[in-house]
């Protein structure tokens, strides 16, 4: 089966300095794929480059069989790509409902109310907080708002940058369960995660990025059992 997202030879960075170099990555439809690696490896830069938030200098990106290299973020959203940025990812003074509404701007759904209901059915905790300012919520609830907002454009591919960053272990479990629910609804997921071991346990495939380059890719299970990956990136303990 051909990949939903295919990244080939991608080089990108800031101010002409490459941060990722020649990165290759395929994400199959309906899978959860996770990018792990040390701090500063370029994981966020890779996600942001796929979503056209960082300038690419070389390489190609295709999505759903169509070349998307060079398209702008506002063009990617209607095609079915959405992103949840890392932290500070809600509009704090807007209400939860208004935050969700922002998610419809780039690709207005035909039936907004139906999409909103679908999204809220994933996050029942938010139902009672729709009129509350998003900035007043807990970190875990804010992450749900950010995920909900990204889902309002009905993406085929959801990019998430460290969705569990700064969350308590209890919320970490909740967010990972939500990702499984979102995948069940047919959304493909590509995420960056620092909680590598837990993320690989729910992932179909994983990609280790080191110093901006592919180090190794494999199934979540294979990476959890790979000695080099375990020693260097999973704290050494058995999976
Ligand atoms: N906007 C920017 N301008 C200049 N350099 C940047 C910018 N954003 C990130 N960098 C640099 O790019 C490198 C890779 O950062 P990136 O955030 O992509 O790594 P990461 O693997 O996601 O790291 P972490 O796990 O710490 O979030 C770092 O050296 C960082 O300082």
UniProtKB/TrEMBL annotation:
Keywords, ordered alphabetically: Amino-acid transport, ATP-binding, Nucleotide-binding, Transport
Family matches, as CDD domains: ABC_TM1139_LivF_branched (cd03224)
Organism superkingdom: Bacteria
Alphabetized GO MF terms: ATP binding
Entry-linked InterPro entries: AAA+_ATPase, ABC_transporter-like_ATP-bd, ABC_transporter-like_CS, BCAA_Transport_ATP-bd_LivF, P-loop_NTPase
Gene3D superfamilies: P-loop containing nucleotide triphosphate hydrolases (3.40.50.300)
Domain ABC transporter residues, every copy: 5-236
Keyword Flavoprotein: no
Similarity comment text for this entry: Belongs to the ABC transporter superfamily.
Record's protein name: ATP-binding cassette domain-containing protein
Species assigned in the record: Hoeflea alexandrii
């Amino acid at each position: 089966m051909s990949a939903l997202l295919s990244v080939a030879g991608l080089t990108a960075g800031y101010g002409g300095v490459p941060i990722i170099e020649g990165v290759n990555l395929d994400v199959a439809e309906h899978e959860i794929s996770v990018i792990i690696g040390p701090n500063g490896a370029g994981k966020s830069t890779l996600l942001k480059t796929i979503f056209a938030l960082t300038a690419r200098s070389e390489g190609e990106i295709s999505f759903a069989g169509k070349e998307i290299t060079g398209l702008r973020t506002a063009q990617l959203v209607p095609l079915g790509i959405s992103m949840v940025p890392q932290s500070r990812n809600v509009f704090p003074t807007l209400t939860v409902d208004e935050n969700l509404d922002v998610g419809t701007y780039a690709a207005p759904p035909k039936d907004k109310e139906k999409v909103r209901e679908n999204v809220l059915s994933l996050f029942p905790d938010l139902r009672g907080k729709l009129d509350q300012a998003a900035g007043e919520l807990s970190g875990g609830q804010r992450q749900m708002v950010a995920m909900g907002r990204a889902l309002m454009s009905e993406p085929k591919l959801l990019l998430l940058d460290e969705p569990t960053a700064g969350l308590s272990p209890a919320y970490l479990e909740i967010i990972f369960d939500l990702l499984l629910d979102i995948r069940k609804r047919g959304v493909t997921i590509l995420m960056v995660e620092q909680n590598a071991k837990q993320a690989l346990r729910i992932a179909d495939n994983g990609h280790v990025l080191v110093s901006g380059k592919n180090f190794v890719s494999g199934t979540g299970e294979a990476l959890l059992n790979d000695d080099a990956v375990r020693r260097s990136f999973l704290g050494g303990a058995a999976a």
